[in-house]
Each structure stands twice: as structure tokens, then as C-alpha cells.
Amino acid sequence: MNFPDFSSIKMVVSDMDGTLLNSEHQVSDQFFELFEELKSRGVLFVAASGRQYDSIVEKLQPIFDHIYFIAENGGMIKKNDQELLSIAFPKELVAEPIELLERHTDINTVLCTRKSAYIRSDQKHFKKFVDEYYTSTNYIDNLMDCPEEIIKIALYHADGSEKNIYPKVKQFENRLQVKISGPNWVDLSHLNCNKGYALQKLQEHLGISKEQTMVFGDYNNDLEMFEQARYSIAMENSHPNVLKVATHQTSSNNNFGVEKVLEKLIRDLS
To answer: Which end of the chain is more exposed for a tag (fewer CB within 10 A), N or C?
Structure first.
């Protein structure tokens, strides 16, 4: 892998699943060591994920105090539990997709709020999948009875999202952000709710430019984020759409792809 001189970088942004996390949903010890090197050189780190905020924190607890979090695919930005941005799902558009989804029993629906995830009582078998991404889960008989403000509607299909979910919800694309966020997941959210928009707002807040930003990702929900960085680095295991637009490519998430690039970044900053 031939990489350019990264010495201009002041911010590193990484997706979680399929990128920083291996297939066992773990962060490597090597990453935490490299993070300390980056911090000592004044480089900021941002975790950007479709996961719930608390779920990302759980994975990165050792460095919680020192990093920024973009959660729910751009629906929220936090630092030290302080909310810097929140984009709610349009209330007037909640009913229509829920009514559609309740007719498709093969699709599992998760209503994502600031602090919890809500699934239907008759989908308790789905809880083991939800628990990996959401630290707090509640059951409700009717999704329209969700007691909290919704940030995102996450949809799961065991046999694949592009074939089994996206065709059913693409009709909402002119009113909602419809994003294939993983092999089995599609997310519905506010039109402005994506990782790229959230990253842009964070860059403005911190006074860091695109030219000073490096981004890692693997799936379609990372595409807008790639537009906000001088260096957009796709994992070897990335979706073809991501590989096509990335400025560079690294090894897979199971072969320390992020860590290899960060080692190069640290050398360039030394």
C-alpha cells in the first residue's frame, strides 16, 4: 500500500463496524496504543457509527474522555456526554414508514432514541442482534406508542438489506434519508441526518478543514463522510460503492487495516 505524506492531518474519523471493529466486534489493543501516540501529537479522534451513543462508548471506554462521538449515523454528536448536535426524525413522517413496515413481518424494526432502542414485543427473538448495537432495549406492543423522541428507524433483515429492505422503503427517499448501512441494515432518518453532515458541523465547531481530515469507512453510510476528508480510506472488505470513491484502500478490518494507516500517520507526524 502506497500512501502519501499524511503530516497535514489533525483529525482522524473512523466508522466502527466493519472498519475499526473486527468481525468479533472488538477494538484491538494496538489501536488504543496508537491512539495515545496520536493524542500526544495533537491529532483528534472521532468515532462515527450507526450505533447508539452508549454502544460506541462501551467499545471505546478507555479513551472516552478524549474523543468525539458521531452516533446514529449522524443523528447525534457528543463529547464527554455533552450533546453538540441532535437531529430528530420528523414527527409528521413517523407513521407512514411504521405502518408500511408492520405489514412486512420479515423486517425487524428498531426505533432509536437518545437513550434507548424500542422493538415490538413480538420481536423478542431479535433482541440478541439489537443488544450488540444498543445498550438499552425496551419492548412496546405498538411502535407508534414510543414514548421518546425518535432519532432514527433502523431496519434489519437476516437475508440481506439491499434485496429485502431497500426496495420497500426507497419510496421515502425524497422525504427521508434512506441509507443501506450494513449487509443486513437500512436506516431511515431526517434528510440532513448522515455522517457527512455531522462531520461537517464538527469540523466547523473545531476549526478543522477537510484538508486536515482523514476518514476510514466500509459501507454506504460512510459515503457522505468521505466527501468531508482529503484522505478517504476504504477497508479491503468495503462495499463496492465505497471502494470506488475512496482516495486510498487499506487491509480489512480483520487484518488491522486502520492500525496500519495510523502507524504511517504517526511516522509522518514524528
So the answer is: C
Residues 95, 181 within the same domain: yes
| For helices 29-40 and 257-269, angle between their N-to-C axes, nearest 10 degrees | 20
The parent domain of residue 255 ranges over 11-86+194-269
Tell me: the pLDDT tens digits for 19-64?
999 999 999 999 999 999 999 999 999 999 999 999 999 999 999 9
Provide long-range contacts, Cβ within 8 A and 24+ apart, for 217-220.
217/14, 217/15, 217/19, 217/242, 217/246, 218/15, 218/17, 218/18, 218/19, 218/242, 218/253, 219/15, 219/18, 219/180, 219/181, 219/182, 220/179, 220/180, 220/181
Count structural domains, the chain. 2
In a domain, 65, yes or no: yes
Residue % of the chain over a pLDDT of 70: 100
Please say whether the dihedral angle defined by the alpha carbons of residues 14, 19, 25 and 27, taken in this order, is positive or negative: negative
Predicted confidence (pLDDT) per residue in 122-179, tens digit: 887 887 778 888 888 899 999 999 999 999 999 999 999 999 999 999 999 999 999 9
Q: Is 158 exposed, middle or buried (0-12, 13-18, 19+ CB in 10 A)?
A: exposed
CB–CB of 53/76 below 8 Å?
A: yes
Cell triple for 124: 423478542
In a domain? residue 2: no
For residues 75 and 205, membership in a common domain is answered with yes
